[in-house]
Amino acid sequence: STRASITLDRVFELASRLRNPQQHFQSLHIAGTKGKGSTSAFTESILRAAGLKTAMYTSPHLVDVRERICLDGRWIEQADFARLLENMVPALEIMRRPPQGQRRPTYFEILTHLAFSSFAEKKVDVAIIEVGLGGRLDATNIIRPVACAVTNISFDHQSMLGDTLDLIAREKAGIFKSGVPVVLAPQSPEALNALQDCAGKVEAPCALAGRDFHFTRTEPGGAEEWPLPRARVVLDDGTAYEAELALRGAHQVENWAVAVRLADEYWKKRTGMHLPAEAVGAGSRQVNWPGRLEEITRDGPRVFVDGAHNDYSLGTVLRELRIGLPSRKRVVVFGCAKDKDAAAMLKVLAASEPAGVIFTHSGNARGKDEAELAAEWKALTRQPAVSYVNCGDALQQAKALAGESGVVLVTGSLYLVGAIKDAVPC
After folding, report:
1. Which of 89, 107, 164, 311 is the most buried if burial means most Cβ atoms within 10 Å?
2. Continuous H helices in 122-180
C-alpha cells in the first residue's frame, strides 16, 4: 500500500482491545534520524537518578528482543514478556483476519503494545518512548506525551519518508501535539523551517538547542588516554548543568543537552522546579547505551563497537577514534545491510586510512554479502581485501592484525554489533 493510504486505525484498534494501556502512564516522545536512542537513554538515566520509576522503549535490539522494553534500567523479565504476549493473543486472533482493505498488526506494533501494557501494569512515573520510523504513522504515535524532542534530521528511509529534508522533517513532526512542548536539536535550515512550521500549526512551544538553550563540550581533567567527555548545558533561564558523559563522542554532547532540556521539561511539570544537579551528574555518568562507541574488551587490542550505518555517522565515529587514540594502529571490521549505501560508507572508510579492513556478515538475512563488500573495497582502493563469513573469525583476525597496542572498530550495522557482542564474552 502507498504511504498516503496507511493510517494508525489498526494501532488504535489494537490499543482499544487491550484497554488502552498508553493512557495509563506519563511519557516523553523522541523522534529524529540520528541520536534518538542515545537521547532516550540519557533522558531515562537522568530521571531515574532523580528518583523516578522509569521505563524506556527503543529499537532495534542488539542481542535480545527484551532490550527494547526496559523498566528502571533493566530489561523486561522473560516471564512478564511471555505473560503479556499471551494476554494479547485473543485480541490478535480477532485481528488476524482483517476486513477487506485492512491489515494485520505488524511485529513492531505488537511489541509497542506489549511495552505499553508493561508500563501501565508496573505503574511507572514516566516512560521514554523512541519512535521506530518517521513519526506521524509510527505505532508509538498513539501516546499524548508531556513533552517531545526531535534529534538531528538527515536522509534515511527516503522511500518511506520522502526524498527532501522538508518532507522527512514533516513526517518526524507528526508526533507534535497541541500545546505539548518540543525540544529540538540543531537542524539544517530546511529541516528547522519545516519543524517550526508544524509546531506553529499545533501551537506547540519550541526550544531550539543553540538558540533557546546552549551547550558546550568542556575539557576533562587528568591524563587518562581518551577520557570520557565532559559537557555543560545552560537552559533558557540561565540554569546550568555540567556532567561527565558515559557515552563517547562529540556527537553525544548534543544528544545529552537535548536530553537534559527534555528531562527538565518533565521535572518542571511534575514539581514546579528545575532538575536537581546531582541527578543530571549521576544519570549522565551512569547511562548505559550499548553499541555506540562501546568498548567491549581490553584483552589485547582495545575493541570498540558502533552501529553507524550511513556515511555521516561512520565518518563521525572514525574521526572520534582517530582523535581519541591518535597513536594506535586502527583496524576496522565492517559489514552492512543490503539496503544501506555501502559505496558511500566505503569511501568514508578509505579516507580514514585504516591499517586494515576486514569484511564480514552479521548472520542476519538483511546483511550484504561480505565477498561483494570486499570486491567493492578492492575496486575503490586497489588494496587487497579480506572477508570472513563468520564475524567471530573476522574479529580474531582483526585483533591479530592490530597487535597488542592497536585498536579494532567493528561497525557498519547494529545487526553486526549485536552478533559480535553475542560472540564475544564481555
Report:
1. 311
2. 158-161, 165-172
